[in-house]
Automatic annotation (TrEMBL), chain B:
Gene (UniProt): soxX
Entry-linked NCBIfam families: thiosulf_SoxX (TIGR04485)
Signal peptide: 1-19
Record key words, sorted: Heme, Iron, Metal-binding, Signal
Name of the featured protein: Sulfur oxidation c-type cytochrome SoxX
Keyword field contains Cell division: no
InterPro entries with a match to the protein in the record: Cyt_c-like_dom, Cyt_c-like_dom_sf, Thiosulf_SoxX
Amino acid sequence: VALAGGADDDVLTIDGQEMVSKTAAAEHMADTGIDEVVSGWHFRTDETQALEMDTFDNPAMIFVDQAIDMWGTVEGEAGESCASCHGDVDTFKGLSTQMPKVDADGNLVVMEDLVNTCRTDRMQAEAWKWSGGEMQAMVSLIGHQSLGMPMNVAIDGPAAPFWEQGKEMYYTRYGQLELSCANCHEENYGNYIRADHLSQGQTNGFPTYRLKQAKLISKHNRFRGCIRDTRAETFAEGSDEFRALELYVASRGNGLSVETPAVRQ
Amino acid sequence: MKLTALTAALALTAGAVWAQDVAPTDVSYSEYGEVATPLTAEAGDAERGMQVFSQRSQGNCVACHVVAQYPDIAFQGEVGPPLSGVGGYRSAEELRGIVANAKMTFPDTVMPAFYKTTGFIRPGDAYTGKAASDDLPPILSAQQIEDVVAFLLTLQEG
Ligand code: HEC
Ligand code: HEC
Ligand code: HEC
């Protein structure tokens, strides 16, 4: 496929720190035809790109600041805040690069699961809604601690069956339009589909701030939207299917810097 | 639509209602994916076909295809080949087959089938994200297929 518009050659720095926004694809990508993985940032307009390059201009940072407040706020029957158990949030530096991961019980968990387990089991507070403002702000705050670090999710060992499930989903042609993730993000990245410049559909910038919606978008919300657009019955946010898909998609971006919270149109 | 049925109907009720449209499950494709018989009795209308081609709520073909002679259609996509001259090298039969179910002509193509109602994985109710009801309508009607074929035949540039 000809890459008409393609990825641009700009360099992504955030507050002066250079990000790895293009890099050699991981070994497991050998049969995809993609030898270089590219951040979604390279497919956006200069104006949108600029908003991500300086945290003062990044409209998502308001939500990160709100999450800092929530971090120190006591909620729930146990009378605890995140801070009372975890101290400074920078103890989570690097965690996002490994997510999703398999926990001690053998379950595949994503960041939203970790946060809600602490909310319900340890704080005795109410679970946050998956794509709700609080949850995505907290996921952004935790993700932001890994800014610039390379994504490095494990796909072997106990993760292997989940990864296989996610891979199978990635290549399934869902819906009445019979389109798979790969049809758009592997075979056609760089091309325009109507007004949209198709990227590789990487998740290293999530949660992303969408200018159109003026809020943080979760990975599962993005997956839902993409599947809905194939005229398909989607999966639910927080479903096991989307956890597996999240692992597989994250693994396609291994090596790319965490850009959380990224800015998209 | 069987030719005999069509002519029989014609003989009986000349000038009145033609035989019914060919149902999506009754379309007959040649080995190469062509569909010889029109899906409707009414000839395709190229003007209406242009709407089918360009409107998001209809075929939205421009999501993937450029037609250079219509620069006013905003945001022409590039997932499929430009169609500016397709009427010059493709027959009506070929075009009808490609629009009705492009996979009969190009196996595994990303181009969706516009006149197909079965065989989908998790079919949805249009763009709601909810499951489709059992009688999923095709994306385009038989008449819309004929209209867009008539439009494609007018594209003779380059
Ligand atoms: C009462 C204590 C307590 C509170 C309050 C608490 N946590 Fe935890 N948290 C823990 C413990 C214990 C673990 C498990 C540590 C481990 O697995 O090594 C944990 C694990 C985590 C993890 C996973 C860390 C990892 O490496 O897998 C995240 C993320 C997390 N907490 C976030 C939060 C957030 C956000 C809040 C507030 C909304 C919060 N926690 C509130 C005790 C707490
Ligand atoms: C019909 C085309 C199409 C299909 C099929 C599709 N997407 Fe997308 N996707 C888009 C468009 C358009 C965008 C917005 C522009 C972009 O970043 O590519 C997008 C964006 C994304 C993004 C955000 C990328 C970023 O950097 O902000 C992710 C992640 C994503 N898609 C994942 C998926 C997954 C996973 C699937 C399959 C379940 C999928 N997509 C299927 C069209 C599609
Ligand atoms: C999601 C993308 C997509 C959409 C939507 C789409 N097409 Fe296509 N179309 C393609 C691709 C890709 C091809 C090339 C066939 C192949 O895969 O080799 C193609 C091929 C064609 C061809 C054959 C061109 C040639 O040179 O032989 C015609 C005619 C055509 N499309 C018409 C249409 C019409 C009419 C519509 C809307 C009713 C439409 N397409 C919608 C992607 C699309």
